[in-house]
């Protein structure tokens, strides 16, 4: 997941930095985050928070975020969901595989995220978690994807 949101090559260079800094020695989780952050800073990768802030939400908590609702332009007024999702969640999504996937972040404590640049109708499918590089899914959207596969599976090629 980290390699996806900072870029695979940046991740490799940061990992090499980490291994070289701690060769024949002990290391802690924060040592990895520090090496990756140094590389991110050197290569001017724009992130919404530090590597440590993002990754600690994944490594110090049980389970993973379960994104249960379709991302809507506005939250339903009758929602009774009171859960605060304490993760930084990198979002990747597309409704057109001829274009690059769009990226955004669900920040710590954010229970919804308006995505106003989808450019689709309310009944059209959206693929989230493009190429399944992150750990979340949207159960409602799977039904729309299933229907599209039945109607015309070539749309996903």
Automatic annotation (TrEMBL):
Pfam families (alphabetical): Peptidase_M1
InterPro entries: Peptidase_M1_aminopeptidases, Peptidase_M1_dom, Peptidase_M4/M1_CTD_sf
Gene3D superfamilies referenced in this protein's UniProt entry, alphabetically: 2.60.40.1910, Neutral Protease Domain 2
Domain Peptidase M1 membrane alanine aminopeptidase, residue spans: 1-58
Protein name (Swiss-Prot/TrEMBL): Peptidase M1 membrane alanine aminopeptidase domain-containing protein
